[in-house]
Design a protein that fits this description.
The chain is of the alpha/beta class. The protein has a single domain, classed as Alpha-Beta Barrel (TIM Barrel). It contains 10 helices and 8 strands. It has an 8-stranded parallel beta barrel, surrounded by 5 helices. Helix 3 links the parallel strand 3 and strand 4. Helix 5 packs across helix 7 and helix 7 packs parallel to helix 8. The protein starts with a strand and ends with a helix. The structure holds 2-phosphoglycolic acid. The site of 2-phosphoglycolic acid has 13 residues, from strand 8.
Length: 246
């Protein structure tokens, strides 16, 4: 049985004043059936973790330490109180040229530090229009997911690049077909036990108004939420919708 997960991604947003939003989230009654987390900027991770709401980083370096000015290791995130880290977000892949091999190494770094990786894959608009979605996702999974993925160490996030921050989403049938194909691929690659235990999140323009419909789709185990995770008033209804979903 997979526990549902509502994870936020604050991206390059969040100053000390914004911790008030996380305080409001942390003050809400913990859901008995839904895991929650906010992945925040490295500058806030320590203070976010102190508020008692599960916290993640947004990226990590593959190495544990060393001469990598400006980078943050998974060990540093864990030391600051994080329990999750996003790897392979499409903005990292696009802005920093991260390859599947990089994402694979970062995911292994997350495990080394005891973090759960929220590993992102997703097709671009051109790939979607060309009908290449599943080919792209299978290729990204093959390259980005290390051997040894389990339900405890990895969460897979399907985030169509064209749906991120645009207000656009695939149809429910499209999301369902993709998640079903991803589930099959996980079972084939990692075996039945791990393949059934790894959670698959949908991400891309999830908000309170579409959350219930998305969470009603088979094999959608939760969401990775960007813009709508910045304010408690937007994020908590998404958590509620996930809790209410079958
Ligand atoms: P969005 O971002 O919810 O703002 O579309 C999702 C993400 O990038 O994880």
């Amino acid at each position: 049985m997979r526990r549902k997960l509502a994870a936020g991604n604050w991206k390059m947003n969040g100053l000390a004043a914004d911790l008030a939003e996380l305080e409001k989230m942390a003050a809400a009654k913990p859901s008995p059936s839904v895991d929650t987390a906010i992945c925040g900027p490295a500058t806030l991770v320590h203070r976010m973790a102190a508020l008692g709401w599960p916290v993640g980083g947004e990226d990590c370096h593959a190495a544990a330490s060393g001469a990598h000015t400006g980078d943050i290791s998974a060990e540093m995130l864990a030391d600051a109180g994080a329990t999750y880290v996003i790897t392979g977000h499409s903005e990292r892949r696009a802005d920093h040229g991260e390859t599947d091999a990089d994402v694979n190494a970062k995911t292994q770094a997350a495990w080394r530090a005891g973090l759960t990786a929220i590993l992102c894959i997703g097709e671009t608009e051109a790939e979607y229009r060309a009908g290449d979605t599943l080919d792209v996702l299978h290729r990204q999974m093959a390259g980005s997911m290390p051997e040894g993925c389990t339900g405890a160490n990895t969460v897979l996030a399907y985030e169509p690049v064209w749906a991120i921050g645009t207000g656009l989403t695939p149809t429910s049938d499209e999301i369902g077909a993709v998640h079903n194909a991803l589930r099959d691929a996980l079972i084939e690659r990692f075996g039945t036990e791990a393949g059934l235990a790894i959670r698959i999140l949908y991400g891309g323009s999830v908000k309170a108004s579409n959350a219930a419909e998305i969470f009603g789709i088979a094999d959608v185990d939760g969401a990775l939420v960007g813009g709508a995770s910045l304010k408690a008033v937007d994020f908590l209804p998404i958590v509620d919708a996930l809790e209410a979903a079958d």
